[in-house]
Design brief:
The complex is a heterodimer of chains A (about 120) and B (about 110). With about 120 residues, chain A is mostly beta strands. Helices cover about 0% and strands about 50% of the residues of chain A. Chain A contains no helices and 11 strands.
């Protein structure tokens, strides 16, 4: 079965960077896009962007452009999110999510989710 | 960017009642080439990641009970739970998957009376 297992909680100081991992199993990692979504405490869902694990192509929400980077290591079926210049507003649970299927019609439909990684930014 | 707006923000109903949640997009999410609405619904229970309920406005995800249904087209959509069960207590989000950024609504919290 499809599983996405994320790295553990992080505590960072303002101005620092964080890197969150998302290890995929139960399917061919390079076949399906991975998206990243975050959720601040008590708030709603915020879409951050997508990555094609095969090509490495990425698309970022304008809000995070220049501050976020999605990468992957296909040898270990793992996707990464790196967010820099952290502020307290970046305190959130960060989710990786795999799209439901292949093709433009299903792009952005998030069928499988990781358990989430809490990133806390505090001085 | 497409802005998604849900109503109401919260809803309290009795077991067995019908729940209706609305979602409005700032521009149409209907792809004319295939006549599909690129609108998804997710359910999030406390302490859990979201779960896909519906996509293409009305297609249920795997294992989703048939008491969950979706309707609407263009800019106005509805999620209906036909007979509320205790396990349906959650926050529900709509999301457009028409164009990047794939924005979410602000969420609707559903509680049992």
């Amino acid at each position: 079965q499809v599983q996405l297992v994320q790295s553990g909680a992080e505590m960072k100081k303002p101005g620092a960077s964080v890197k969150v991992s998302c290890k995929a199993s139960g399917y061919t990692f390079t076949t399906y896009d991975i998206n990243w979504v975050r959720q601040a405490p008590g708030q709603g869902l915020e879409w951050m962007g997508w990555m094609n694990p095969n090509s490495g192509n990425t698309g970022y929400s304008q809000k995070f452009q220049g501050r976020v980077k999605f990468t992957r290591d296909t040898s270990i079926s793992t996707a990464y999110l790196e967010l820099s210049s952290l502020t307290s507003d970046d305190t959130a649970v960060y989710y990786c999510a795999r799209v439901l299927g292949i093709g433009n019609m299903i792009r952005g439909v998030l069928g499988y989710w990781g358990q989430g990684t809490l990133v806390t930014v505090s001085s | 960017d497409i802005v998604m707006t849900q109503s109401p923000d919260s809803l309290t109903l009795s077991l067995g009642e019908r729940a209706t949640i609305n979602c409005k997009s700032s521009q149409s999410v209907l792809y004319s080439s295939n006549n599909q609405n690129y609108l998804a619904w997710y359910q999030q229970k406390p302490g859990q990641p979201p779960k896909l309920l519906l996509y293409w406005a009305s297609t249920r995800g795997s294992g989703v009970p048939d008491r969950f249904s979706g309707s609407g087209s263009g800019t106005d959509f509805t999620l209906t739970i036909s007979s509320l069960q205790a396990e349906d207590v959650a926050v529900y989000y709509c999301q457009q998957h028409y164009s990047s950024p794939y924005s979410f609504g602000q969420g609707t919290k559903l509680e049992i009376k």
